[in-house]
Amino acid sequence: MAVMGDFKQRFSGLLNKLGNQSRLSLNSPSEETLKPITNESSVSTIKREDEKHSEQPDEILSDDEILEMVEKDYFKETEFDPSRHELKKINSKLNCDEILIQSERLHRQQKVVSKKVLSQILTNQRACNEEFERIQNLQSLLRETLSICRDGRSKLNMGKQQLTTTSLGILANYRKRQLLRDLLSSLNTIKTLQRSEEHIQVLLSEYRYEDAISQLLDCQSAASSLRRFACVAALSSKLQDTLVMTEEQLDVALGKICEKFDETLYGQLQAAYAQLGKTQAAMDQLHMHFTSSIQNTALKVIKSFVGKPELGVVASGKQYNELCKNVREENFIPCLQELCTSLWRIVCSHHRVALWHQKNLLGSSSGSKGTELEVSFTNEYIRQKMESMQARIWHDVQARFSTYLFSSDLASFKFDNFLQVLGLVHRLMEVGEEFCGSQSEELQKSVRLQSENYFGKYHVGCLEELRIFLENESWTHCPVKNDFSCLQLQEFRSLRGAIQNVHLHEQQKLQQSPDSSNQSQDGSSVAGGFFAKFAESGSPFDLTTFDLQEEDILANIIDEPSGYFSDDSDEDVPEELRGDFVDEGHGESAIHSSEELEVRFENSDRVHFNPKKAAKGNKGRSRPLQGPLLTNTTLTVLRHCGKYLQMSRLLRTVAMDVIICLTQLFQYYLYAVNTFFTSDLVDQSSLYSIKLQATLKRINMDLIRPEKLPNSVQQTSHDDRKKVPQPHISPIVNLNNPENLFGLSERVVAVESLVFLAEQLDSLRPYLEHLVRHEPRKHLVQQFYLQMVSVASDLRLPVYACISSRTLDLRSMLNMMGRVNWEIKEVSSQHSQYVDFILREMQIFSMRLEEVASHLFISKDVYDTLWEALVIVCCNTFVEGFSNARKCATGGRALMQLDFTQFISKLEKLTTLRPIPYKEFVEVYVKAYYLPEELLEKWIREHPQYSSKQLQTLVHCTCQNNKKTRQRLSGVIEELERVGLIK
């Protein structure tokens, strides 16, 4: 061993020596900031050596001399930075030659030192190997010595045993053994009892509560049989204390079950309590644990989201409801979600506890004590206790949430954040319904009050926002996909399953409601319920369960070119894409060179107006996008509708009020389109349907705030504050340019976007009726669809009639008709010139319509309505021009029929509209000239669609020679005009 120690000492000395010599290697410069120069002696020494070296530049120095020239600082054992040391030597005025000389000197020293170190290592390597060989030999000798010692000791023990044991010793030991044998059994029992506490603790740490209680009871039984020993009395008392502590550990483990249910652990606990005969007491204790866990968990969550200043007051007695008021607005939703998740774990644990008891009824085989009657009584007690615990637990959960919701004012929340709050609360109510069949009335009441307060202010803001959108809308087409529907919007994603489910139930005529116990109220099925889906991990309140995908509704203008382009420059468009588009600079849409695109348009199920003429007039140009016509404002209204329906779905108690507000969005949109685009309509009597007139009048009365007169001091009433101001069209919309048919594109986009909005609302009708199926005011939904939505398409005619009345030069036509001689006797074979004039005007209209259709899709319905409005205006003008003739002979009447027949025949070549509408209006009027005087009064009463002037002209021309009849019929016309039957 001494040799080994000597070797270690010598070897460590060698390593230290080599380490000191290795410090001479030159390191890279350090990045730290240089410290001030404090040691000037080293600098002077280096200078002297440099001078000495410079004096002998040609002298060749040996390695030992070079080693002697190494500065002493390099041999210091403390931390030493050679780079910093060398940099300190450099003067402020740099000399390149000196630096090079110094660098060369250091390189030579480094080589010598490295060479010296390597030589030392090679020299000592042989000595090191020899020393290791000596150590191995020494170990071999030590092993031999140890073997000899062991053999000697073994032989000595054998001799001692054989030579010193006598017969008397054998007899004495035998007698002692007989005396101690009886005592040994008792001592072993006492020893086992003493060690039982440790073993019981091991069993408890391994959650083997049944085995621990079984062993503890066995120990108590054994201790009672050994009462003759004085030590056993103290041991019995210790076992009793151990039993009490074990029951406390059982209670602690039972409390942990409330937050995380473990089936194996809970089975062990129930078996342990069954052995103790305290199964009913365990259920009572479990109920207390669940109640306490709900309160403590809710308080813990709130504390985690409250700032430290507020937490300082908790110690002074601040309660849960006061603490909830200190949660900041930005933390309200995360805190609510965490509160839902935390309490969900407790509710889920109780649900799993109840399922466990349903599967594992107590019985004799389970180790429970007592008779069959007692076991049956215990099972019934557990069942009733679990049911009462469910109601109590859910009541406590509602109380925690209601307190939290009432503690904050949600009026300042954004609508998306408020919907998220409603979504969490709605999901919580679904959990309550599945948990214990509760409708969560207390929770519904608290969230309803918050919702009513919030939505009232939000809806006023939405109407005001819609007014701003409408007043700044340019009424240009927003390109969307051909199959676009409101369900593709982000706001409808959470409603998609509910709406489809309601439609499915409507088709199948099923009695079952979509919101059954295993199905959420929004109609989306939850397979097996929340407790089955999130039993092991996760919760129904995780953000990952909500659909937050991005929407994709805009049309791809590369695949489907349209007349809609942004104002941005095309410099960012790749060159390979620019080659497929040609901008002609005249409003035409782009040209696409793909043959597949042409095939897609040919196979489109949408009908383009007058396809033959469109093909001739649009050669070299691509066809416009044939998707639905809508505007950004239309999308805004649909998005608001989606948000409103989300609130209706999440909170059924305010669904009817929210849907009524939703209808106001559509009403205001309808009213604005009518106000903007029918202001230049001259005659509205024959163009508005009765239902549309009543609808607009009702909207104006219920929704539109009357404008104040200038210098008026009249205060706005409370009802008027809820109304919306009269909208005004944006000044950028030009409806007076005849080149673009007086804003035809804007009018078409406006009306068709309204019709599209009505179609989308009509598709949502089954779901809206489903939401309010239990409401006493559900008839308002049906009334809305019958009176509001159904009349949207009726607005086409008056809006498009504004274009027709301004496109045609009706005044010139009336002047030309006024110059026609209607008193001719013979029937003429040539029609009048005004017919050619009006047909030429209509041809110009047709060409301009085709020009507009080259960059804006005109559907067949729009095309038919445009021509229908044009024909109505022409027919009214025909009748008005005929009524200007005070005298008309038989030949003049024939000429009227000839002119109108010529007009109709040429018109049929200009349009595909069949049959030509409103021509009976002219034909019936002309034929009335041939009626006998005695039938004329009946005809007048049966045709109130003509004006009093037109009827008076008819009477004067028909009864030229009968003054008495003429006066009588004039009186009839005046009477009808007085009672309002004719105008």
From TrEMBL:
Annotated InterPro entries: Syndetin_C, VPS50, VPS54_N
Domain Vacuolar protein sorting-associated protein 54 N-terminal: 67-356
Amino acid composition bias (Polar residues), ranges on this chain: 21-45
Ranges where the record places region Disordered: 21-58, 710-729
GO annotation, cellular component aspect: cytosol; EARP complex
Top-level division of the source organism's lineage: Eukaryota
GO molecular function, one term: SNARE binding
Pfam families noted in UniProt: Syndetin_C, Vps54_N
Coiled-coil stretches: none
Regions of compositional bias (Basic and acidic residues) in chain numbering: 46-56
Domain Syndetin C-terminal: 741-974
UniProtKB keywords: Coiled coil, Protein transport, Transport
Entry keyword annotation includes Protein transport: yes
UniProt record, GO biological process: endocytic recycling; protein transport; retrograde transport, endosome to Golgi
Record-given protein name: Syndetin
